[in-house]
Amino acid sequence: MSTDDKNRAVAAAILPLVGGAGNITSVAHCMTRLRLGLRDRSLVRDEELKALPAVMGVVEDDTYQIVLGPGTVARVTPEFEALVAEAPAAPAATPSADDLAAQGAAIRAARKARNQTPFKLFLRRIANVFVPLIPALIGCGIIAGLNGLLINLGWLPAVTPALAAIASGFMALIAVFVGFNTAKEFGGTPILGGAVAAIVVFPGVAKVDAFGQTLSPGQGGVLGALGAAVLAVYVEKWCRRWVPESLDVLVTPTLTVLVSGLVTIFGLMFVAGEVSNAIGEFADWLLVHAGAGAGFVLGGLFLPLVMLGLHQALIPIHTTLIEQQGHTVLLPVLAMAGAGQVGAAMAVYLRLPRNGSIRRTIKSALPAGFLGVGEPLIYGVSLPLGRPFVTACVGGAFGGGFVGLFSMLGTKVGSTAIGPSGWALFPLLDGDKGLGRTIAVYAGGLLTGYLAGFVATYFWGFGARLLEEFDVDTDTGPETVVAASAGTTPPPGPAPEPGPEPKPAKL
């Protein structure tokens, strides 16, 4: 079977299990997940879906998210979209449309009451602005790292200027993309958001004197672009309400760009610039003066932040640091949470020698875990078991403390892009003491996280009751061990295959 046929077969297997084409309202994907908008959640056959070999897990959030893994999801999504487009518009047949609709409405209402707080919804919107930019950040970051290596080695001097242009072009205009996505996410006209955000990076602002200060192109960066585009959305919505329809096409875009642009130039750029500078200075100060302690806390708390969806607040901070300093010093510290998860999973494997289903899950999920894709281990192993999730956080804390300690000693480790972690972060590493030392410190942090997570889980991750419940013989079928609780939003990555779904254990 060709690769295209395989991807289409995966899409064809998923479609009927999510209620058919008529139950699909939207199709999108991120780095690892197929994200579906559903008309009726009750039509989804969860267990059959999780049992598909290609499906590593599911996560429920504002969309129904099917974890397929990096690379795979980008190939399956177009095939899935094509199947949805080709299918008849009518929804899949149901025994009682009214009953199912009522059941779906009840499920949605319960989820909304439980999880969709205004703060989380706001963070999700902010994440939706920046997440589509991650592939470009990764690609340009790797090219920038390669270019730096070639320059240091003195190789291909005729090529390095071209590589520098390729790597830097996106970052020079990232404010425009942020503005475009912001307006789209907040319900405005995307191109107007991009037009207002473009003011931030326009070289001509250097001729503007705002309150006695000459502006600099790029002042305020992505935060200024974000604020400018949000303002443009509100100005546009106000215009739509009050401007006569006959004049709307002329007046609304003109007023939107003019009002938002003036506020951006004579206010937002200065304020956002001060905030951006403060973020960079605080991050540097934190790791230089409190690196070990700060790294311990950040590495230990990142997995719980992920489970609560609060990690999304860090995305604009990472982006600001990359735009400002060329790399983010926070991501390598936070990446240690994944190392603790890997170490914990290896300990679980040894502590449950009779549970074939969980051990199969760990064996299939560990390669992805080493590459920084944590969901298979989170949802298939540590979170359902309970206490191993806590000890995985302990491993992340020690790994983060290791990287933070070396920041205090003068070796900062940064990443030129956001998204990858684990071993996948090596090509994106950057630092102030040379690439060799930077790689060594990051590798040392990973090893520390692996070891601490393993030791903490092996010796303190299991009580007698937990061992009695889970260290039992299981069948050898390909069931899925996934306890993806509703309302969680983990960092990009897939989830597992085998095993019966375990009951959440008491700590």
TrEMBL record:
Region of interest: Disordered: 478-507
One MF annotation (Gene Ontology) recorded for this entry: protein-N(PI)-phosphohistidine-sugar phosphotransferase activity
Residue span, PTS EIIC type-1 domain: 124-476
Bilayer topology annotation: Multi-pass membrane protein
GO biological process, one term: phosphoenolpyruvate-dependent sugar phosphotransferase system
Bilayer-spanning residue ranges: 129-156, 162-180, 187-206, 247-273, 285-308, 329-352, 389-409, 439-460
PROSITE patterns: PTS_EIIB_TYPE_1 (PS51098), PTS_EIIB_TYPE_1_CYS (PS01035), PTS_EIIC_TYPE_1 (PS51103)
Keyword vocabulary terms for this entry: Cell membrane, Kinase, Membrane, Phosphotransferase system, Sugar transport, Transferase, Transmembrane, Transmembrane helix, Transport
Classification via InterPro entries: Glu_permease_IIB, PTrfase_EIIB_Cys, PTS_EIIC, PTS_EIIC_1, PTS_IIB_1, PTS_Sugar-Specific_Components
Domain PTS EIIB type-1: 8-90
Gene Ontology cellular component list: plasma membrane
Biased composition (Pro residues): 489-507
UniProt key word Kinase: yes
Subcellular location: Cell membrane
One Pfam family matching this protein: PTS_EIIB
Cytoplasm in keyword set: no
Positions annotated as active site in the UniProt record: 30
Protein name according to UniProt: PTS alpha-glucoside transporter subunit IIA
Native source organism of the sequence: Streptomyces cinereoruber
Encoding gene, per UniProt annotation: pts32BC
